[in-house]
Specification:
two-stranded antiparallel sheet, 7 strands
């Protein structure tokens, strides 16, 4: 961080700590792209003034950063006491004092301005040149003069809404674009493709499929939109994979030879084939080979984002197969490509995956370093699946470090998040979180509470005889042994082993169960059993 930003941070923090606020003080002359970091012990309103606009950021009592990435010139910063109710920990909002925008666009602007290294998939030439221009476009789009915005600029805003996960904003813009009777076929295709991706990010696959099928019907006979047509077909195949539909493989196999003249789409289909063999057929070697082919095509096209995605996918396959050395190599390459391209979410996801590997290897300092970095990168959007997964892993590290109360807090957050969202895998994830909470309770010397949590997890899984079910049975054996119930503990441990031994490789949890059985037999004073285990 630049020294001027550091000086400003110290000054603002000093003002906050003594409760003294100086209005309209000229604090910063922005000579280059700068980041201002605030650390606020209480909720505050921050006013940032430029010659074009006056922004008000309402922020919670925690550290956050403001990027002045698109503005050069003087900036006035004023800090005010916030008399309104204290915002929640994740509540950051921003609005323009001159022309109040609709709430959807206020949030959009806030997410664009506030955050760590906000990434964008929008080409620089198509982005609004300044924050002021973005604000003006956003406000105009909510007014009676919305028709004055050119189609391509409105499509740019739609892409930005999607990239920032502002789905209310995306819905509003998509409706406006759809209502334009003079919308050209090219812009129509761009709109529906983008809006289908909005549905995908909300896991609304039925609506995603409907939009893509509508687009395919509209542009199917258009030769000059062949690229958009094949892109839509590829994304439709991907949606079918997410729904576990039988026709998804046939969809991809039919499409693959048709895309050879369009290598970027060809790489996308290869990547989706890898996804199919990962999620549906669970043939990891075949999946990894498709990801490798996609990676090579993207590399030949000099498309680092696509290459990084394929590397990430291959790295996670290798991680799941416990080929950690090769996995770290692939994920580290993806890590650097995502960081260089300023792709925040993907960068955070890859960082978290590396942290997960080091956690599995019980290299806790390295795991903590990567996972903390991932969570910090997601500081402006902590209520999502990735943040929840990172908190889950940080909880395990906290428990290993002896901070069980912190572990409980992390794991409770994880369970709460997955109870509140509706996804096909949510029950499994809730059960996974309950298992970790049970381990926390065992570490706290509360076997009864641990057993209650494990029973709830078993009910959710409906005794599906999965490795997760086996892990729950193994933890149950330990809790029962803590209650001096060795016979019941033995039955639970043996049931866990029976499930683990169905897998085609030895799992670390299985080895721990064998150790637990030794302990049980010693407690039962059955040395012969212990020797033969």
């Amino acid at each position: 961080m630049k020294s001027v930003s550091h000086s400003l941070t110290m000054l603002v923090c000093g003002l906050l700590l003594v409760g003294c606020f100086k209005a309209n003080a000229r604090l910063l002359e922005v000579q280059e792209r700068s980041v201002i970091t605030f650390s606020s012990p209480v909720a505050q309103d921050y006013h940032l003034s430029t010659p074009d606009r006056h922004y008000i950021i309402r922020a919670p009592h925690r550290q956050f950063s403001v990027h002045l990435r698109d503005y050069l010139g003087p900036v006035d910063i004023t800090v005010h006491n916030n008399a309104a109710p204290t915002p929640s920990e994740n509540d950051i909002s921003i609005h323009s004092e001159e022309k109040p925008a609709a709430m959807e666009f206020a949030t959009l602007l806030g997410e664009y301005l506030v955050g760590e290294e906000t990434s964008s998939t929008i080409a620089p030439g198509n982005r609004p040149a300044t924050l002021a221009e973005l604000a003006e476009l956003a406000e105009l789009a909510t007014s009676s003069r919305a028709d004055e915005i050119p189609d391509h600029q409105l499509i740019t805003l739609l892409a930005l809404c999607n990239q920032q996960r502002n789905f209310g904003c995306a819905d509003l813009i998509a409706r406006q674009l759809h209502s334009r009777s003079a919308l050209g076929l090219q812009d129509y295709a761009s709109t529906l493709l983008l809006y289908a991706r909005v549905q995908h990010r909300q896991d609304r696959q039925d609506e995603r499929i409907r939009l893509l099928e509508q687009l395919l019907q509209k542009i199917g006979g258009s030769q000059h939109l062949k690229h958009e047509y094949l892109t839509a077909r590829s994304e439709l195949c991907d949606a079918l994979i997410f729904q576990g539909r039988n026709e998804s493989l046939r969809c991809l196999q039919t499409l693959l030879p048709e895309t050879t003249a369009f290598p970027d789409i060809h790489a996308m289909v290869l990547n989706n084939l890898g996804g199919y063999y990962t999620a549906v057929e669970r043939q990891s070697d075949l999946a990894a080979s498709y990801f490798l082919q996609a990676e090579q095509v993207y590399q030949s096209l000099n498309q680092p984002y696509g290459e990084a995605l394929a590397l990430y996918n291959r790295g996670t396959i290798l991680k799941d197969n416990r080929q950690y050395q090769e996995s770290v190599k692939a994920l580290t390459s993806a890590y650097h490509l995502f960081r260089e391209g300023d792709h925040l979410t993907e960068y955070a996801r890859t960082t978290a995956a590396l942290g997960g590997i080091y956690l599995a290897l019980e290299r806790y300092p390295l795991a903590n370093q990567f996972l903390t970095e991932a969570l910090n990168k997601l500081s402006g959007n902590t209520e999502n699946r990735l943040s929840a997964a990172v908190k889950m892993m940080l909880g395990s590290i906290s428990r290993e470090a002896g901070d069980t109360e912190e572990a409980v807090a992390y794991h409770t957050d994880y369970v709460r998040y997955h109870r509140e969202i509706i996804r096909s895998d949510s029950p499994w994830r809730v059960a996974r979180g309950l298992l970790e909470l049970a381990k926390d309770q065992s570490a706290l010397g509360e076997p009864d509470q641990a057993l209650t949590l494990l029973e709830e997890g078993e009910l959710i899984l409906e005794s599906d005889h999965s490795p997760l079910h086996a892990s729950i049975l193994a933890e149950r054996a330990g809790a029962l042994l803590s209650k001096n119930l060795p016979e019941e503990a033995e039955a639970s441990a043996l049931a866990a082993l029976e499930i683990f031994q169905r897998e085609d490789h030895v799992m670390p949890e299985e080895l721990r169960v064998w150790g637990k059985l030794q302990e049980i037999y010693i407690r039962q004073q059955a040395p012969q059993k212990a020797l033969t285990t």
